[in-house]
Design a protein that fits this description.
The structure is a single chain. This protein starts with a strand and ends with a helix. The strands form three sheets. A seven-stranded mixed beta barrel has the order 1-2-7-10-9-8-6. The protein is of the alpha+beta class. Helix content is 26%, strand content 28%. The chain contains six helices and eleven strands.
Length: 268
């Protein structure tokens, strides 16, 4: 693994130098879109809706739209914001672990001690274990201030970013307000069913069958010689494909949204 960030955990006067690593990775097989007739690579292009030109990344600004009005934010505008660049992970408070709602947990990172002696690191780890507390910390990653939960997993400190309170939607379902009568017998039968399925959770016993079968399919096609030379069918990303239809990203997104809404309407 390669560290993505270096800094220090601080709580009180204790300073714990650490390296930060992504704790998870995506195992999905990466697939490209290609033309069904000749296997040519299909790419999305950043097309301006006003002039129709393909726009380079360096010529793209950000914008905020509200009530029919749009505010353009230039790179200079964004750079002028007081973005935090601190290399410290500050412990704000220690809370009972059960008070951290699983719904708010986001990305996870491993912390490795980054000093000659791991004593301060081990001290914090043991403190969290013995007190059954989770540290709520605040830190900056990629110029964004983040809130996170610091806990212990297999003797390693794990930093798990938290969603902000206003990012979690309130669940309001009128059907749940209706009075429902559950009989004692129904509860007993339900509990019996739960007991019949009860087991200790072992993540290793679960496999992503779709990805496994997809990999098997790909290997079979390779073995059967059903392959194309990438140089013949995929143009370089820097090249501007000519003569073919340019897929506009915005149109593709709009079509995807409409298809998703249609599916929801049909399901409802």
């Amino acid at each position: 693994m390669r560290s993505i960030w270096k800094g220090a955990l601080t709580f009180g006067l204790v300073n714990v130098p650490v390296k930060v690593y992504s704790a998870t990775e995506d195992h999905d097989v990466s697939l490209h879109q290609v033309h069904d007739e000749d296997g040519g690579r299909i790419r999305y292009k950043r097309t301006c809706e006003v002039c129709g030109e393909v726009v380079a990344y360096q010529n793209i600004d950000r914008a905020f739209e509200d009530d029919g009005q749009m505010v353009v934010l230039t790179k200079e505008d964004l750079d002028a914001l007081p973005a935090e660049r601190s290399r410290e992970i500050d412990v704000v408070e220690f809370v009972p672990s059960e008070q951290v709602d699983l719904l708010t947990l986001d990305k996870a990172y491993y912390l490795e001690p980054d000093s000659k002696s791991p004593k301060a690191y081990v001290l914090l780890r043991r403190t969290l274990e013995q007190t059954d507390r989770t540290a709520i910390v605040r830190f900056t990653l990629r110029q964004k201030t983040r809130l996170a939960a610091l806990r212990v997993r297999d003797d390693v400190l794990v930093l798990q970013t938290l969603l902000w309170a206003d990012e979690v939607r309130a669940a309001q379902f009128p059907a749940l307000d209706e009075k429902v009568t559950i009989s004692k017998k129904e509860l007993e039968l339900s509990a019996s069913l739960v007991k019949s399925y009860s087991s200790d959770f072992d993540p290793e016993s679960f496999v992503d069958e779709y990805q496994k079968e997809l990999r098997t399919l790909i290997d079979a096609k390779i073995e059967a010689g059903e392959t194309f030379d990438v140089k013949e069918t995929f143009a370089d990303e820097g090249e501007d494909e000519k003569g073919g239809e340019v897929i506009d990203l915005m149109e593709a997104l709009k079509a995807s949204v409409e298809r998703s809404r249609s599916k929801k309407r049909d399901a409802g």
